[in-house]
């Protein structure tokens, strides 16, 4: 089968689908990933084809030092335009597809499949469907509002995703589809039992009991592992002392590197640990790669599955993929969430016993970070909990569930289970 995966978003919204695509390809299917051009090397390195989407969502994730309401409002038309163009790119890519799979940042993929007369399914790394079990990720907060409050806010939150709905409405009009409010689309998906597989472990966040049929939690989708040798400087640094603490914010905190680097270095030294700072979009440590001192090392891209097991703890933004990678590596976390689903995963790390506390990105300061790092490194219970979770998450076969979904359709023409 010819499978198209529409993967809008940052690196963490694309990388999991390279592992999924590789498994599908090994099962005999042809896979194309529609993604922003900056991720073409990553997609092609997995041996998959890419259909480029215009723009780069990562730019819109960058936050100024002080994010005002006017700034946030100004992002809505830019995000709407980016999503609208991504929708058209997905439509073009679907011309030669038999099946369309879409991530949580590409809800228009359902409409594209309708316009092309193709079956479709969701592959979500984050829980988007309202539930009483936990608060909606659109609130950017892990605070529970109670069962009724969580579900109500979740329903309101889905309807409040203005750029996504505007882009989808315009796309439907241009593709000759009838106008359809978002509530009607959700009702149609529910009546169809439109399948959505969620790529996180049920041991980390179980499937809510109040979700409709067709929504399943199947396990993490790991990026493919490829042979990798560390640079000489990194290998020497790791061998030259006790395991360091890794600090990285992935695609988050763009433009904050100059502020963050001195703060992070001071906190790690106050905690009495060595550090590896990964540049990421924040360019953490890039301005002073030779001025960090012998106890700190700045690095670029390093496979998390290789590095994390060699560290004492990981300070990270709490993204779905990075959270999974810390658990897979059996290493304690200090989560510093920025927005979206990150507070949810961060809070789960604490509830699972794998992290001492959640430090909101806006509240990051030296003494608090130092205290959390010291606890994560020195108190054995956090590593013990992370190692227990490592056994749980590596026992899942998330990619296998996607292969099963696709092959069920290939054999029966039905995407739904029994």
TrEMBL record:
Domain Glycosyltransferase family 28 N-terminal, first and last residues per copy: 3-56
Highest taxon of the lineage: Bacteria
Keyword tRNA processing: no
Pathway per the UniProt entry: Antibiotic biosynthesis; vancomycin biosynthesis
Gene3D superfamilies given in the database record: Glycogen Phosphorylase B
Keyword Transcription appears in the UniProt entry: no
Chain ranges of the Erythromycin biosynthesis protein CIII-like C-terminal domain: 296-394
Keywords: Antibiotic biosynthesis
Pfam families: EryCIII-like_C, Glyco_transf_28
PANTHER family: STEROL 3-BETA-GLUCOSYLTRANSFERASE, STEROL 3-BETA-GLUCOSYLTRANSFERASE UGT80A2
Identification of the protein by name: UDP:flavonoid glycosyltransferase YjiC (YdhE family)
């Amino acid at each position: 089968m010819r499978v198209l995966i529409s993967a809008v978003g940052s690196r963490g919204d694309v990388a999991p689908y390279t592992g999924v695509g590789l498994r599908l390809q090994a099962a005999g299917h042809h896979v194309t990933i529609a993604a922003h051009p900056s991720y073409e090397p990553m997609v092609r390195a997995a041996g998959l084809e890419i259909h480029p989407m215009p723009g780069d969502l990562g730019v819109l994730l960058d936050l100024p030092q002080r994010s005002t309401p006017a700034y946030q409002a100004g992002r809505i038309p830019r995000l709407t335009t980016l999503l609208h163009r991504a929708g058209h790119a997905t439509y073009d890519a679907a011309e030669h597809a038999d099946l369309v799979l879409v991530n949580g940042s590409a809800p228009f993929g359902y409409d594209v499949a309708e316009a092309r007369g193709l079956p479709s399914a969701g592959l979500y790394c984050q829980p988007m469907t309202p539930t009483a079990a936990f608060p909606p990720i659109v609130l950017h907060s892990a605070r529970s509002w109670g069962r009724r409050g969580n579900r109500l806010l979740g329903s309101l939150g889905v309807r409040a995703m203005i750029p996504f709905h505007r882009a989808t409405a315009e796309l439907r009009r241009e593709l000759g589809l009838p106008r359809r409010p978002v509530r009607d689309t959700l009702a149609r998906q529910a009546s169809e039992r439109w399948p959505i597989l969620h790529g996180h472990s049920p041991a980390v966040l179980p499937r809510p009991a109040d979700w409709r049929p067709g929504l399943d939690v199947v396990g993490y989708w790991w990026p493919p592992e490829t042979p990798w040798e560390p640079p000489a400087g990194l290998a020497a640094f790791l061998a030259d002392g006790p395991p360091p603490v890794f600090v990285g914010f992935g695609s988050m905190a763009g433009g904050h590197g100059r502020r963050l680097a001195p703060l992070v270095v001071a906190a790690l030294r106050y905690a009495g640990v060595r550090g590896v700072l990964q540049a990421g979009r924040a360019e953490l440590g890039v301005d002073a790669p030779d001025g960090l001192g012998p106890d700190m090392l700045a690095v670029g891209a390093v496979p998390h599955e290789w590095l994390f097991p060699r560290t004492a703890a990981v300070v990270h933004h709490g993204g779905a993929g990075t959270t999974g990678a810390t658990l897979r590596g059996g290493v304690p976390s200090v989560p510093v969430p920025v927005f979206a689903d990150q507070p949810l995963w961060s809070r789960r790390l604490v509830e699972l016993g794998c992290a001492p506390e959640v430090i909101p990105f806006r509240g990051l300061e030296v003494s608090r970070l130092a205290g959390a790092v010291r606890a994560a490194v020195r108190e054995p219970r956090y590593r013990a909990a992370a190692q227990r979770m490592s056994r749980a998450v590596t026992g899942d076969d998330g990619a296998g569930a996607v292969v099963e979904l696709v092959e069920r359709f290939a054999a029966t023409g039905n995407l739904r289970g029994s």
